[in-house]
Design brief:
56% of the residues lie in helices and 0% in strands. The protein is mostly helical and 90 residues long. It has a domain of 56 residues: 434 Repressor (Amino-terminal Domain) (Orthogonal Bundle). Helix 2 crosses helix 3 and helix 2 packs across helix 4.
Length: 90
């Protein structure tokens, strides 16, 4: 589960500020993690998991994704169309 899901599933859900106080991780950084803009170190993952009462392995993080240009997207779409055309799919 994500950090946000773990915060929300508690009997008394935690705000980012409360999680920051319990974990020692800055609230702004927690926000970036939850939005998938940062991939935390193992140390930060352990701190967050401990503050949430979970094993670190229970949390999943989706860090920053590589940027894809519009040219790459259109090239990819063109490749998909040609594969579909070869299979007789319109």
């Amino acid at each position: 589960m994500t950090v946000r899901e773990a915060r929300d599933r508690r009997k008394k859900p935690l705000t980012q500020e409360e999680l920051a106080d319990k974990s020692g991780v800055d609230q702004t950084y927690i926000s970036l993690i939850e939005r998938g803009l940062r991939n935390p170190s193992d140390d930060i993952k352990r701190k967050l998991a401990k503050a949430l009462g979970l094993a670190p392995s229970r949390l999943r993080f989706s860090g920053p994704q590589p940027e894809v240009s519009l040219d790459q997207l259109s090239d990819s779409a063109g490749q998909n169309e040609s594969v579909g055309d070869r299979r007789g799919v319109a």
